[in-house]
Amino acid sequence: MKKFILLLTLFTGFNAVSANNEPYYSIDATALNVRQEPNSTSQIIGTLKKGTHVEVIEDTGLINKIDNIYATWLKIKFGTTTGYIFGGYVKKQLVVGGLSADSLHIFKFQTYKSNLTSIKTDTKIYELPDTNSKILSSIGFAETIESINTAFNDSSVKNHIFWYHVRFENQEGFVSSSDVIVNTIKRNGMIYGINNYPDSFEEWNIPSYSFLQTNSEVIVLSTKNQRIIQHFKLAQPKDELSLIEDQQFDDVFGTSVLIIRYEHLFCCGYDDGYIVNSVYSLNEDGEIKTLLFTWFGKIAYGGESRIAALLKDIIVTKNSIIVKYNYIEPITEQDFNKINLIIKYIVNNQKPVFSHIESKVIQTKHWVNTGKGYQTLEDLKRPTILHFSKKTLNSQFTGISKVYPLVYE
Questions:
Q1: Cα–Cα distance between 241 and 261 in angstroms, integer?
Q2: Phi/psi of residue 316, each to 5°?
Q3: What are the pLDDT digits (tens) for 90-106?
Q4: Residues 239-265: pLDDT tens digits?
Q5: Which of 132, 129, 102 is nearest to 14 (CA)?
Q6: What average pLDDT score do residues 69-81 get?
Q7: Where are the domains of the chain?
Q8: Cα–Cα distance, 95 to 119 (Å, whole number)
Q9: Distance separating alpha carbons of residues 208 and 157, to the nearest angstrom
Q10: Using an 8 Å Cβ cutoff, are 261 and 297 in contact?
Q11: CA distance 24 to 16
Q12: Distance (Å, rounded) from C-alpha 92 to C-alpha 71?
């Protein structure tokens, strides 16, 4: 699944903005101490008032937790000398569309409750989201620990690392996303799981929005050999995946399979995008090998008035697969049909062969501008039976998914 984690940012105007759009730093506390060294016990050499513009020389990368805020120490120019301030009380702003936006400066947290499975023999649990911080404990290969949320900032995004915030033995700590997998499935002595990590952080010229793009891969562990046996990535960049186990597909294909769900949202948290499920065979060593079949959970572009298909049901029998969609067919810019679409495949020797398509119009709608927005009226009469071919359907949808056809070929 490709996922944009949507971050709400606060837009405020300010006067001092550099011509080359460099970050603008200002104090966001009533008063903030400037210290001689980057720690809270170092000598105080001055104080800065709220709103004061500061020139940041360097982000030290040294993390502290102060007032329950995780942030790094910043080296700043202070008069004729330099000093250090705690970044948790500093606002970092960028120019976006002529406005200023708070950026990912301190660690941001998002709720993410999941069991983490270690892919190393010694996965460390740190006191802070920093590999230089105190090591509180560790877990061994294939051992698990529960996360309560994820933490990330500019630096961790740049290094493609999420920090999982965990609780254990009445303590709290942090585990690097590079050391664990989530959404695990156990089969035949193997553990299949997803390794998620942030790919990039983007500011968009859309008021109040910024985007964290994520990426992921499937990692296969051998519990017998206590090692990773495979890193598996789909062709699409910047995606996020999840795993599904369904015995019906093992039976119809006559072999062990793994279903990988890939979700891609185009932008801004809207419904545009698609969810596709891919069935892969597993070899005798448990490795993910051959793509056998795909079907969509959803595919949409441009909202309800554009082409879209939503999975209604999938029926798997001994030798066939039947996929049912609620399908929207645009007629004009204002008119569209809602259609029941059924696609049937016959499975022979592990190969699904397209059989036929059935379709029936269940509703026709017309967009009307009421002055307060658009409403849909069912005032058009259309043929109740439509005739689709594999070619016509796929020509519409491959423009959206780029790779996956609606009718599997």
A1: 6
A2: -115, 120
A3: 887 654 444 344 555 57
A4: 678 999 999 999 999 999 999 998 877
A5: 102
A6: 90
A7: 7-102, 107-202+211-232, 245-401
A8: 41
A9: 20
A10: yes
A11: 8
A12: 12
Q: Would the CATH topology of 7-102 be identical to that of 107-202+211-232?
A: yes
CATH superfamily of 107-202+211-232: SH3 Domains (2.30.30.40)
Residue that has been written with the tokens 């008032």 in this structure = 49
Amino acid at 22: E
Q: How does DSSP assign 151-162, residue by residue?
A: EE-HHHHHTT--
Burial 113-136, CB ≥16 within 10 A → b, else e = ebebbbbbeebbbbebbbeebeeb
Phi, psi at 299, each rounded to 5°: -150, 130
Structure tokens at 205: 């010229």
**CATH superfamily ID and name for 7-102:** SH3 Domains (2.30.30.40)
Cβ distance 404 to 398 under 8 Å? yes
- Whether 11 contacts 207, CB under 8 Å: yes
| Residue 262 near residue 1, CB atoms below 8 Å | yes
Question: How long, in residues, is the chain?
Answer: 409
Q: What is the pLDDT of residues 321-346, one digit of tens each?
A: 999 998 887 777 667 778 889 999 99
Tell me the C-alpha to C-alpha distance, in Å, between residue 377 and each of 160, 253, 310, 328: 48, 45, 21, 15
